[in-house]
Amino acid sequence: MNIYFSGMGGVGIGPLAEIAYDAGHTVTGSDLAEGLVTKELQARGIPVTIGQDGTYVRQVHASTPIDWFVHTSALPPGHPELTAAKELGIRTAKRDAFLAEFLQVHNLKLIAISGTHGKTTTTGMAVWALKQLGIPVSYSIGTTVSFGPSGAYDPASEFFIYECDEYDKNLLNFNPFLSLLTSIDYDHPDTYPTEQEYKATFRQYIGQSEHTIAWQKDLTYIEQPASNAIWALADTETANIKLAGEHNRRNGTLVVKALEYLHISSVAETVDLLANFPGTDRRFEKLADNLYTDYGHHPEEIAATLQLARELSEHVVLVYQPHQNWRQHFVRDQYTNQFELAEAIYWLPTYLTRENPDQPVLSPQELTQSITNQESLHYAELDDDLWSLIQTHREANHLVLCMGAGSIDPWVRQHLA
After folding, report:
1. pLDDT tens digits, one per residue of 50-67
2. CA within 20 to 30 Å of 214's CA: 163, 323, 357, 381, which one?
């Protein structure tokens, strides 16, 4: 097939393009801007055009007819590329429909990693462990990694490891053989107007899974009792993995339990393997001496990542960019004591995306009213003054952690380059 992927730079679409390429399909696509994923695709010989006005779709189709136009959930109904595809009579679908069909065609057992936080790292750990054990594996990870492409298909594999996110209720399109639930806190209010709907979606997802491994605290939170098909881990059951960060050790524990459950590896062997896990990009990724980047943009993620950072340094500085004004209206009251492990906080304006135009944009001052360590708080912009402050902290041997899912990561990388 000739498959066109719209939004190839996205962490959901990019890996699927690589999977289709591995399976022998002709792959082309586009995105609005270059990034880590588009560069990875281009390095593999997959053509990516920058710009999405619909012209490239028509050009590709005129040259070699497109069989399937696959797009991200974030693509609006009137998007020029989607409009062009429909006018040309091309089959269109969101990414989950493509992957569900791919799993069925290739008879792969789905091991899905879901939850509010920790999905990417846990997926990376599972893929890393299987690779180290010499077991063929197909997978999709929501970021770039140092130990392979972000998405891959191996025709010898029995399992497909998938970072199965809850945005747009993506997870409900699958019936996993095994589900791992990392942690659950209310998020994505644009998809789930109420906390109860969020909980109900995870209960439905567990019901669609043949087997599930989850922490007892999360099952209690979503009001889901354990059963023969649900292995509830005690909240103190963390494996003794030699990794920094309590949340990393908990994520690794899920992989340890999964490989034990599948009779692939012993607990001791997996624990030893994960001690050398190199991490994934954008998850506490070291960019330079005393400078780290992280995708976290939820209060729980901030607290967990600061705890990790303090295991490495007594002096931690946080540069934080909130993500999506819609989300901030729901989490503003949760910003309280999560920042206490940072001796300085540089708070940036919210990165705006997929917004409700009727909602007022909350200011940094409004979002930080309840933060307990007010004396550490400074308001900042992504400018040369902030970069100078970051450099000063680094030179003083302070660990600087730049967090957010918006423009902060490419901004930091650009200044380093």
Report:
1. 999 999 999 999 999 999
2. 323
